[in-house]
Amino acid sequence: MRPTNLDMDALRSFMIGIEAGSFAQAADRLGRSTSAISAQLKKLEDQTGTALVRRSGRGLALTDGGEALLSYARRILSLNDEAVSAVQCPNLEGWVRLGVQEDFGETLLSHVLGRFARAHPKVRIEGRIGRNVELKEKIASGQLDLALAWDDGTATDAERIASLPLCWLGPAEEDPLWHASGGEPLPLAVLEAPCLLRTLACTHLDRAGIAWRIAFVSPSLAGLWAATSAGLGVALRTPFGCPSGVQVLETGQHNLPRLPSLGLSLLGSGTPDNEISTHLATIIRQALRNSLPEAWVSGS
């Protein structure tokens, strides 16, 4: 049986259409007509022999086949873009300095560095895992070329690429050691100051009129997770990268204040025409699209 070769342009239109919520928006992004995008979707359905999307209210919903194809499409297009980048810039040389917020160090950094190193083996990468304040200071002083950091609204050369929900976290195996009806202040497990999420936790508790106390302070995220999983205190983070020893606490069930989302931004040093940084930033964006839920990624 002759193998079927999926159309790459059609795959990209399909992926962007789902991420954008409509193929009309995909047409705008790709500079094509809506009818052309629809024709590409029909081509994919003919090639795969199955329906990929169905109408759901005013938007689109994936069928089982569409859900499976979307997962493959992201991987195929990611590898395609990596190959093109490597071929187009085979002699890219130099070095780049990247900083990553602690929450993404273990889960995202290895994937990003691996992909970039395969595409550009002659480029030397200097990586740093750090806290928001440190990353912003090093970007401002020119010690980093790129940094992935929480968006506190103060950075000037920043591109928001995702928005992650904040949540209260407690031990996975048992109820937290605090209950609103007990009259005791809420014990908090926090990182050393200055810490954006520590400040947000205290601010939201104060606004809700909930008494709190600092029960555990850690210089690292690993220590924070250990204290939270042991039930020493409640932490405020995002769900991304949470270890198995902690769980998200329902705000209504535990009488905790509801929380907003927190932006995740890619900070640049402002150096113009830095081709190495441009290629690395593209890989970071793709890695986040592959690892975060669609609803969290900017532009989805």
TrEMBL record:
The keyword Lyase is annotated on this UniProt entry: no
MF terms (GO), sorted A to Z: DNA binding; DNA-binding transcription factor activity
Taxonomic superkingdom: Bacteria
Stored Pfam families: HTH_1 (PF00126), LysR_substrate (PF03466)
Keywords associated with the record: DNA-binding, Transcription, Transcription regulation
UniProt cross-references to InterPro entries, sorted A to Z: LTTR (IPR050176), LysR_HTH_N (IPR000847), LysR_subst-bd (IPR005119), WH-like_DNA-bd_sf (IPR036388), WH_DNA-bd_sf (IPR036390)
Domain HTH lysR-type: 6-63
The keyword rRNA processing belongs to this UniProt entry's keyword annotation: no
Assigned protein family: Belongs to the LysR transcriptional regulatory family.
Name of the molecule in the record: LysR family transcriptional regulator
Organism: Thioclava dalianensis
